[in-house]
From TrEMBL:
Protein name in UniProt: Fumarylacetoacetase
Superkingdom of origin organism: Bacteria
Domain Fumarylacetoacetase-like C-terminal span(s) in chain numbering: 119-303
One Gene Ontology MF term: catalytic activity
Length: 305
């Protein structure tokens, strides 16, 4: 089941659902569609939606996230992104790394994730207040010269969790949504080296597709879903969601240990392997038209200014 919200000309939010892409949209109660009662008041949500209304049909976020945590599931993404980072920002180290990998036929050790990543799911807290819908014009913040996209799969809770098992945690996933985690790469590494994780490099903007999909449709098959990154109409990458280090249930169970989680909280897998420009040396530039797709989940489009 697909879920979307629209802002009417009267300024009220309407939740709609449909069984599949060829079906008509039908009005629905928010609790029935999302599986939980939204935490925010209808008036406040309508005000937030009005600030980000896109298009003549009044498309807005499919739900208003209560919070946002972003995991890192993919080792291959981390390695390729690290290689792309040094290629642009530390070319002398890139030469050393290339020499090491050529001689040893193994990965340059600093390109691998931190040792903690292999022992438990790792994540950062994002900024739920700067999440916008697909279609929003995107401008790089003034402090970066390295704007990047990241194709990720988002998942939202529809039930509370506390000290959950992986199976219990997975049952609390209510919906999936395609997510783009915009990043300022020249700012990100210095911030992460501070020991406090990403800050200005991540918190300025995240976007969601205009539709969400009920979890029951995708839970068994999400790693096999096909994705594409297109810039200016050309497919430049086909991210691969297989080989995740952790299951969704394991990741959520870890977060819920000693920490109460609530319906409406949003999580993401982190960049799917091949899902960011730094991995392939394609940086976003003014004038670009970005399109991210994941079959069965949704589409994100942005004009870059």
């Amino acid at each position: 089941m697909e879920i979307r919200r629209r802002l009417t000309t009267e300024g009220t939010l309407v939740v709609e659902t449909r069984a599949h892409q060829d079906s008509p949209w039908n009005p629905s109660d928010p609790k029935n569609a999302l599986g939980y009662e939204p935490a925010f008041s209808p008036t406040w949500e309508a005000e937030q939606a009005a600030a980000h209304r896109i298009g003549e049909d009044g498309e807005v976020l499919p739900f208003q996230p209560l919070s946002f945590r972003d995991f890192m599931f993919y080792e291959e993404h981390n390695i390729a992104a690290a290689r792309g980072y040094v290629t642009r920002f530390r070319p002398h180290l890139a030469k050393v790394a290339k020499g090491f990998e050529t001689l040893t036929r193994t990965t340059f050790p600093p390109f691998r994730p931190n040792r903690l990543w292999y022992r438990q799911p790792t994540y950062y807290m994002g900024n739920a207040a700067t999440i916008v819908p697909s279609g929003t014009p995107v401008t790089a913040p003034p402090y970066t010269q390295a704007l990047d996209y990241e194709l990720e799969l988002g998942f939202a809770l529809n039930a509370p969790l506390l000290n959950a098992s992986p199976a219990e945690a997975e049952e609390a996933i209510g919906a999936f949504v395609l997510l783009c985690d915009f990043s300022a790469r020249d700012v990100q590494i210095p911030e992460m080296n501070s020991g406090f994780g990403p800050q200005k490099s991540k918190h300025f903007l995240t976007s969601l597709a205009g539709t969400a999909v009920s979890a029951a449709d995708l839970l068994p098959i999400w790693p096999t879903l096909q994705s594409r990154v297109m810039i200016n109409g050309e497919v430049i990458a086909r991210p691969d969601a297989r080989k995740a280090r952790w299951s969704l249930g394991q990741a959520l169970a870890h977060v819920s240990a000693g920490e109460q989680l609530y319906p409406g909280e949003l999580f993401a897998t982190g960049t799917i392997t091949g899902g960011c420009g730094m991995e392939i040396g394609r940086w976003l530039q003014p004038g670009d038209q970005l399109r991210l797709e994941m079959d069965g989940v949704g589409v994100i489009e942005h004009a870059i200014y």
